[in-house]
């Protein structure tokens, strides 16, 4: 008998699967070691570091692009004095600590502003070769590190000039929260800049100073580890198919001090997308590390963990009972039927067939007994032409209960475990305790997104200011070419156009322009298009060469949407001062209200000024069994968009958090689904391989016992059912041979019956 066929393998597999599922249930739902912090808190620190890395990468790339754009714009026009170049540069962009213009051939400094830029690092390799004009990090005499950005000013018939700008590698100006600190780390693990410690230095007690020293030491140690891990390949550093941040990111766990554990997230600067052009900032080898001391929380739900052990024990008991039912009602009768059919087929017909009590096995056993009696009677019948005795034994009454009954009983027994475990065990409600760290991180990350969008809009308006200087007084064709070039370089715009004092379009590039209001009270960055299918975000800059003219750029909503999409933050939207949607990370309708009134209330609360600026808000909302973490951060800080009244609001269901109650609920559902899968697999196997062929065999056996000797029985499987089929086929052939012999004897006797 093949080891992989018949009734025994699926029953054995069912037992193995049940034991494995019971062990898994006891492991994932039973008592476990206390974690340092919930996985959700660790993941949140990683996301915070990723957000910081994205903000820093965008800041560095934008500085490089701005300087290069300015140099190309100046080189395309008439020569400008070095002092005028630096003056205009300082008025347009307030982002460099120092700027210098020097003669490339002689190395003479022609003009300088702000912080003194050292020039000892400038050599031939910096200005020529494959890595020419690549930004470099230079250490000043004070020990501070600066990022040096270079661009060439090239006018016809004039010596080339080098425009230098130094920029600090400081942590992006984002809200770090009350206890978080952030650092920018070089390849060798050196901490180049930090933010957050300076607030703590105002503490007075010795205990607080000791904790500050501990955190500074932890930042140094964890930064070394982050720098080493950041050297990994981004693809090999994460789980296959995980996606997410394109660079290397992760979490680190530090030491404990005074009941708080230092948790850190790190992220290397990387391109926004592997398919996009290479990021200048990504090539600097920098890593952002975010450190947060977290109080170790105890779940206090040890009684729930015992449910896992109880569930595992109940599963084992029900599994053994189900296996016993299958063994008693299916396997043992089938094996006995196999032995009886083989005995009769070999010619041992002296002993009656032991007929099972019910089911298809009983039908087949009754048919075997009738065949045995028929063959035995035919063997003893010596009278030619006599009766074969086919009807000597009365036909047993059909038994309607088939082998599907034990399968249904087994299914019911196992569903008794799967359904309660999957649907009732460890269920959560609105009283789930969510770590306050998650609420704070939601608030701080929302403020970071608001700062990111605000800076992007400020940069868009600054680009328009720079482009407006290139627009002449009267040449419309030259203006159109200038607008088209600017549109090709900046994917953030869908249209660029110049309007006169009455709002009439003079020149345009890109999509059809929207109406522009000439009201002086309107801000330079505004939104229009209410009642349309898409909000129209407009930024503007006056054209100096044309009195009353304004350069307007329409910013693509898709560009703003791309700034909002961040993992671990849920749904994010930008709303105006009336709470109407302007942009969103997911789908939205133009100028629609927020989906919940509580979110509108949060936006209003965030807009209330505390001191000089409005303050971001984060809350935990409980609505029945749903728990939602929401936050709102209004635009604040510097730039032209600081006072336009827009707010970034985010919210997400707490069920997405990897905290103990939700993890236990997910594991319980998974255990129930795995149990259901084991049931379907094993019982489906038994039904397809045993029960269905057995039902067909019962019908064929009864037809054979009723005298159908013409239908040949073909065994389809090399198992118990196939063996019974082969035995019945032998019996059919024996009965057919007896009938042929009887017919031949009858034919031989009949010629002598009438005499001569």
Helix content: 40-55%
Number of strands: 22
> End-to-end distance, in Å?
60 Å
**On the 0-100 scale, what is the average pLDDT?**
83
Structural class: alpha+beta
Assembly level: single chain
Strand % is: 15-25%
* Count of alpha/pi helices: 15
Shape: elongated
For the biggest sheet, the summary is: 5 strands, antiparallel
Read across the widest sheet, the strand sequence of neighbours is 2-1-5-4-3
Radius of gyration: 41 Å
Descriptive notes:
This protein has 756 residues and is α+β, with helices and mostly antiparallel strands. It is built from 15 helices and 22 strands. It has helices at 8-29, 39-76, 82-92, 124-127, 197-200, 206-229, 302-345, 359-380, 404-423, 436-468, 476-489, 557-564, 597-607, 660-705, 720-749, and strands spanning 98-103, 109-114, 136-139, 145-153, 161-168, 181-185, 191-195, 249-257, 260-268, 287-295, 493-499, 505-510, 525-528, 536-542, 550-555, 571-575, 581-584, 609-610, 613-614, 617-623, 626-634, 647-653. The strands form 5 sheets. A 5-stranded antiparallel sheet has the order 2-1-5-4-3. Strand 18 (609-610) and strand 19 form a beta hairpin. Helix 7 (302-345) runs parallel beside helix 8. The longest helix is centred in the C-terminal third of the chain and has 46 residues, at 660-705. The protein is elongated. It starts with 7 loop residues before the first helix and ends in a 7-residue tail after the last helix. The model is unreliable at 382-399 (pLDDT under 50).
């Amino acid at each position: 008998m093949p080891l992989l066929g018949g009734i025994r393998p699926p029953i054995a597999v069912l037992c193995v699967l049940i034991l494995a599922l019971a062990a898994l249930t006891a492991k994932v739902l039973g008592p476990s070691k206390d974690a340092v912090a919930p996985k959700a808190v660790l993941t949140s620190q990683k996301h915070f570091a990723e957000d910081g890395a994205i903000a820093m990468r965008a800041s560095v790339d934008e500085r490089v692009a701005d300087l290069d754009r300015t140099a190309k714009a100046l080189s395309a026009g008439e020569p400008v004095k070095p002092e005028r170049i630096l003056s205009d540069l300082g008025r347009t962009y307030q982002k460099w600590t120092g700027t210098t213009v020097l003669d490339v051939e002689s190395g003479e400094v022609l003009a300088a502003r702000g912080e003194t830029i050292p020039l000892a690092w400038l050599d031939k390799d910096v200005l020529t070769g494959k890595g020419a004009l690549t930004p470099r990090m230079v250490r000043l005499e004070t020990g501070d590190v600066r990022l040096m950005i270079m661009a060439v000013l090239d006018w016809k018939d004039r010596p080339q000039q080098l425009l230098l700008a130094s920029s600090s590698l400081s942590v992006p100006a984002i809200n770090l929260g009350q206890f978080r600190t952030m650092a920018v780390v070089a390849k060798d693990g050196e901490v180049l800049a930090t933010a957050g410690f300076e607030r703590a230095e105002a503490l007075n007690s010795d205990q607080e100073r000791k904790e500050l020293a501990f955190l500074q030491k932890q930042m140094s140690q964890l930064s070394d580890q982050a720098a080493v891990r950041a050297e990994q390949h981004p693809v090999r550093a994460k789980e296959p198919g995980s996606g997410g941040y394109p660079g290397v990111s992760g979490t680190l766990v530090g030491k404990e001090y005074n009941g708080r554990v230092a948790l850190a997230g790190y992220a290397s600067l990387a391109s926004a997308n592997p398919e996009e052009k290479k990021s200048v900032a990504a090539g600097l080898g920098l890593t952002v590390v975010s450190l947060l001391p977290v109080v170790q929380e105890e779940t206090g739900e040890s009684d729930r963990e015992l449910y896992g052990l109880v569930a595992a024990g109940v599963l084992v008991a029900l599994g053994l009972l189900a296996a016993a039912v299958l063994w008693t009602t299916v396997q043992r009768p089938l094996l006995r039927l196999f032995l009886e059919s083989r005995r009769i087929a070999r010619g041992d017909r002296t002993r009656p067939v032991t007929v099972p009590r019910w089911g298809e096995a009983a039908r087949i056993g009754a048919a075997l007994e009738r065949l045995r009696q028929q063959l035995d009677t035919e063997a003893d019948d010596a009278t030619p032409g006599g009766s074969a005795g086919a009807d000597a034994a009365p036909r047993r009454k059909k038994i309607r209960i088939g082998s599907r009954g034990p399968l249904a009983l087994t299914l019911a027994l196992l569903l008794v475990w799967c359904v309660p475990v999957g649907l009732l065990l460890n269920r959560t409600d609105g009283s789930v305790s969510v770590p306050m760290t998650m609420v704070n991180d939601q608030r701080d990350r929302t403020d970071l997104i608001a700062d990111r969008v605000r800076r992007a809009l400020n940069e868009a308006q600054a680009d328009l200011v720079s482009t407006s200087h290139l627009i002449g007084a009267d040449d419309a064709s030259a203006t159109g070419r200038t607008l088209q070039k600017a549109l090709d370089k900046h994917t953030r715009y869908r249209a660029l156009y110049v309007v006169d004092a009455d709002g009439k379009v003079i020149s345009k590039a890109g999509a059809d322009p929207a109406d522009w209001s000439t009201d002086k009270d309107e801000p330079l960055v505004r939104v229009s298009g209410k009642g349309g299918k898409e909000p129209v975000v407009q930024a503007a800059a006056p054209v100096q060469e044309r009195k009353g003219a304004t350069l307007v750029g329409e910013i693509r909503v898709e560009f703003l949407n791309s700034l909002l999409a961040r993992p671990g933050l849920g749904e994010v939207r930008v709303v105006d001062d009336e709470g109407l949607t302007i942009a969103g990370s997911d789908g939205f309708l133009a100028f629609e209200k927020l989906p919940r009134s509580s979110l509108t209330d949060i936006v209003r609360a965030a807009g209330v000024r505390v001191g000089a600026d409005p303050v971001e808000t984060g809350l935990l909302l409980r609505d029945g069994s749903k728990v939602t973490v929401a936050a709102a951060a209004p635009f604040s800080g510097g730039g032209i968009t600081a006072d336009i009244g827009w707010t970034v609001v985010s919210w997400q269901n707490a069920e997405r958090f990897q905290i103990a109650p939700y993890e236990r609920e997910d594991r319980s559902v998974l255990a129930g689904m795995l149990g259901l899968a084991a049931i379907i697999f094993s019982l489906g196997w038994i039904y397809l391989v045993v029960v269905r062929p057995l039902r067909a065999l019962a019908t064929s056996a009864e037809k054979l016992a009723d005298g159908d000797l013409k239908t040949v029985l073909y065994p389809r499987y090399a198992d118990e059912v196939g063996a019974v089929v082969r035995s019945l086929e032998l019996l059919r052939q024996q009965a057919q041979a007896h009938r042929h012999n009887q017919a031949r004897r009858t034919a031989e006797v009949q010629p002598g019956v009438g005499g001569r």
